[in-house]
Specification:
The chain is of the alpha/beta class. The chain is built from eight helices and 13 strands. The strands form four sheets. The protein has a seven-stranded parallel β-sheet with strand order 3-2-1-4-5-6-11, sandwiched between helices. The chain has a two-stranded parallel ribbon with strand order 7-10. The protein is globular and about 55 Å long. 39% of the residues are buried. The mean pLDDT is 96.
Length: 297
């Protein structure tokens, strides 16, 4: 049987790299789309076929022609919780222009299946659409553009809107990384009052969702041309309680000054709850088990 062949963007990031290696382990033929100068740590597996994008639409069309994938996993994006005026070009380039070039390249080569990564931050205060930040607005903009390609080029799209993610080998400067660094250093850490709910999903569960979404597209189980699902733990925890759980599991005390800094503008106090659930998917790894696995790695 011919190996399933896919093109993956965002492999220089935590989730993308984990997905690339998972696909290789399961026998897929994996093509990675990277920018010149993108980090390639951990991507030296000869089973990974790397293509460099020169930034042009024509160049991306040619890459998709050469790779000839059956489908695409699109995880590449620029995440900024807060932006400055100097960030506008980078946000639009990464999250709107490049993403649209990818959709155009798929259409030009007859590649129909796309699993796209969105964010729960598109739904501030549980709204149908209310972006927490400009990053979230750019993700929404690409979804609107995808509607055109679904209607006019026959793309079949599943967007998975991710909540917070974590797991072994996660080097991003996110919450668990910060808690680990603080605990090991034994220094004090000024944080917000800690009442916001944090929704953390373990990396293996996230990868399961991406693979299931693709299988649903390939099998025709997703009947509509575009579908969107939230990938949530279903059990968000107040930041204060999460820090206490981390300290208990790690055995390292945390010196946190709660209220030492204010909440961010448009802080997400309660994560999106009115999300459609991906049929057949549910998280398997509890937060306690996930933290244990992460610390043991």
């Amino acid at each position: 049987m011919k190996a399933r062949s896919v093109l993956l963007t965002g492999a220089s990031g935590f989730i993308g790299a984990a997905l690339a290696h998972r696909l290789v382990r399961e026998g897929w033929q994996v093509h990675l789309l990277l920018r010149p100068g993108s980090g390639r740590e951990g991507l030296d597996d000869p089973a990974l076929h790397i293509h460099e994008h020169d930034g042009s639409t024509a160049g991306l069309i040619e890459i998709v022609r050469q790779a000839a994938p059956q489908g695409v996993f699109h995880l590449a994006s620029l995440f900024l919780a807060q932006h400055t005026a100097a960030d506008i070009e980078r946000l639009i380039q990464s999250n709107v222009l490049f993403s649209t070039q990818l959709a155009e390249a798929m259409a030009a080569n007859g590649v129909k299946l796309l699993v796209n990564a969105g964010t729960s931050w598109q739904h501030y205060e549980d709204s149908e659409y209310n972006p927490v930040c400009l990053y979230a607005a750019t993700k929404q903009a690409f979804e609107a553009i995808l509607r055109y390609y679904a209607e006019c080029a026959g793309l079949r799209v599943c967007t998975l809107k991710l909540f917070d993610t974590y797991g072994p080998e996660d080097k991003r400067p996110k919450l668990l990384h910060l808690l680990k660094k603080t605990a090991q250093a034994g220094t004090a850490l000024a944080m917000s009052p800690g009442g916001q709910l944090i929704d953390l999903v373990y990396i293996d569960d996230v990868l399961d969702a991406f693979l299931l979404a693709y299988e649903r597209l390939q099998s025709g189980a997703q009947e509509e041309g575009m579908a969107t699902y939230g990938i949530s733990s279903g059990a968000p925890l107040p930041l204060k309680e999460l820090a206490a759980l981390y300290a208990k599991i790690s055995g390292l005390p945390l010196d946190i000054e709660w209220g030492g800094r204010p909440y961010r503008p448009r802080e997400v106090m309660v994560p999106w709850t009115r999300y459609p659930q991906l049929p057949g998917w549910h998280p398997k790894i509890s937060l306690a088990e996930g933290i244990t696995r992460t610390l043991a790695s």
